[in-house]
Amino acid sequence: MTQPKERDYFTDPTVLMDPYQYFEEMRPRGPICQLETHDCLLVSGFQECVEILRNPTDFSSLNSLASSAFPLPFEPQGDDINQALEANRDKYVGGDLVVTFDDLRHTNVRSLISRMFTPSRLKANEVFMQSYADEMVRGVVEQGGCELVNQIATPYVTMVIADLLGVPPADRALFEEHIAQGQTVGSIENPDSPTDMSTLEFMGGFFYRYLEERAANPGSDLLSELITTQYPDGATPDILELVKLAVFMFAAGQDTSAKLLGNAMRYIVDVPGLQQQLREDRKLIPWMIEEVLRLEGSSKATHRVARRDTMVGEVKIPAGKQVIVALAAANRDPRRWGDDASEFKLKRPGIREHIAFGRGSHTCAGAPLARAEVTTILNCFFDHTSSIKISTEKHGEPGARQYQFEPSFIIRGLDNLYLQLEGH
Amino acid sequence: MANVYVTDRQAHKQTIEINSGNTLMQAITDAGVADLLALCGGVCSCATCHVYIEDAYLDKLPPKTEDEVALLEVSESYRENSRLACQVRLTAAMDGMQTQIAPEE
């Protein structure tokens, strides 16, 4: 009897609809297994993912946007390919963005980000976030409902990061429009070029001008802080490096934060009793968000390439081998989370250790912002409604819901979520 | 070559070579010390890189920010020599410094 052919993680629409079932199909092959469809490893074990993410010495982030779907642009030779990787950096999509940097270049640029989303900074932004969320939610409650993802979540997170950075209000809608029209990262619909940078390139010219203006007249926003800051060794960053960083910070978190709100709302409505529990005790909202991040985080996977021959657990990984670090699989690994790993459970022990935002030196720096954004707007929804329902007309009955997901092998989130909102 | 020394929760002591410019958090995680969770990745938001610093070196460290103080003071394991390793950028002046990972909370 022939075995059924392995599904293609990068292009199969059934994997897009339910990546968790795919990961469970693959899990019996071991926490690290070779794919049949591509020359790369799938890492689904929690411990193994953490080990790789925390080992930048042996694993490069150069392919984190390009993914493991494509062969290396050179023939790896020997037990150490560091020089060849750097020599081919310009062949990688996003090779000039912080998310793909290694070593000193990463340390330097990351040092600039590390002060951007501190609690005091977010506190200072709280008034804007709260008032903007309140205004948006009031409006849709008056209408009796909304499409959450595009009507609320995306414009909300765009405005929040724009306010933090200091993007002029006049340009915000223009960027929002460009981001909405652009291709998702890791598109399954464009397998030859799943990630393109045209939206970031479009915004680059604008951010160059903003930074020049802030250099002449610094204000209190993040762009002013960026242009006046230095690397740890006292050197002044090149303005083009800052432009790329600012554009990336503006664009990178948008889709993932917006998707997190959609994913959270889906659980709030569909987990029996959860909505009422949260209404009665708002202090449970952060716990709910962490469990949603574990079960349905906005990033399914990131990617690494072995810089030299190494071992993860008992598995030998040769220099040049690419690995899919399957965050979503690790976050449901029964060895880490128990037999109920796939179930929603408030206040799950050790929940803060999930890897929805990654781990190690490339951990998502915007995670505190995403948590604050989602907490703030969910509180507004509870403030202004007595009941939130998912439209059965659009999505079907509970237990038989039908959803469309962003067609990406990186992002996990709803394309749309239609809600019915009952005011007080 | 400059080194710092880190003692984990099992009292195992490890020597770590310093690269100036790195944070103490990065140096400890790069050395494979699993006890230091460092969940937020160094953005001063989670306090899971809490360490104790040898008293003699405290004045060689950058001062604590309000954010760092706020996170440390709510820790049950807070001591006068507590620091968040992500907020300690390493310099050659820290050569020989002893550090200890704070208890898990």
Automatic annotation (TrEMBL), chain A:
Keywords: Heme, Iron, Metal-binding, Monooxygenase, Oxidoreductase. The keyword Metal-binding applies. SUPFAM superfamilies: Cytochrome P450. GO terms for molecular function: cholest-4-en-3-one 26-monooxygenase activity; heme binding; iron ion binding; steroid hydroxylase activity. One of its GO terms (biological process) is cholesterol catabolic process. InterPro entries: Cyt_P450, Cyt_P450_B, Cyt_P450_CS, Cyt_P450_sf. The keyword DNA damage does not apply. PANTHER family: BIOTIN BIOSYNTHESIS CYTOCHROME P450, P450, PUTATIVE (EUROFUNG)-RELATED. Belongs to the cytochrome P450 family. This is Cytochrome P450. It comes from Pseudomaricurvus hydrocarbonicus. The lineage of its organism: Bacteria, Pseudomonadati, Pseudomonadota, Gammaproteobacteria, Cellvibrionales.
From TrEMBL, chain B:
PROSITE patterns: 2FE2S_FER_2. GO terms for biological process: P450-containing electron transport chain. Keywords: 2Fe-2S, Iron, Iron-sulfur, Metal-binding. SUPFAM superfamilies: 2Fe-2S ferredoxin-like. The keyword Metal-binding applies. Transmembrane segments: none annotated. The keyword Ligase does not apply. Pfam families: Fer2 (PF00111). Its cofactor is [2Fe-2S] cluster. One of its GO terms (molecular function) is metal ion binding. Residues 2-105 form the 2Fe-2S ferredoxin-type domain. PANTHER family: FERREDOXIN-2, MITOCHONDRIAL, FERREDOXIN/ADRENODOXIN. Belongs to the adrenodoxin/putidaredoxin family. This is 2Fe-2S iron-sulfur cluster binding domain-containing protein. It comes from Pseudomaricurvus hydrocarbonicus.
